[in-house]
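Go through this pair.

…
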Amino acid sequence: MSDFRISQRERESIQILELKGYLDAHTAPKLEEAFQDLIRTERFNIVVNCKDLSYISSAGLGVFMAYIEDVRKNRGDIKLSNMSAKVYNVFDLLGFPLLYEIVKDEQEAVGKFSHKKQE
């Protein structure tokens, strides 16, 4: 019933996770596994492209909260991009824009890591 896929690639030493479909309690373990793999292999600069994410539940949001501390304590970050208004509203309702940088597109998100290196 819940169709969810993650594709992963690297761009300028930044890990890009592209989410597609419905992220809910049934599919959240796939995203957990992706974050665990990135942390285990010491890749802490992550952009999550939500262009094709059509739905996110509280369980999906919980995955982001579960891993942000591990990523940041290793001098990395998770930046979110390409959200539809519907998905952004869920993040916004729960205060995520205060905790995460949410930007318009992937290029801008990747660029945010370049600025961080220069500081």
The longest strand covers residues 45-56. The chain is about 45% helix and 30% strand. Helices lie at 28-40, 58-73, 85-93, 96-99, 106-118. The radius of gyration is 13 Å.
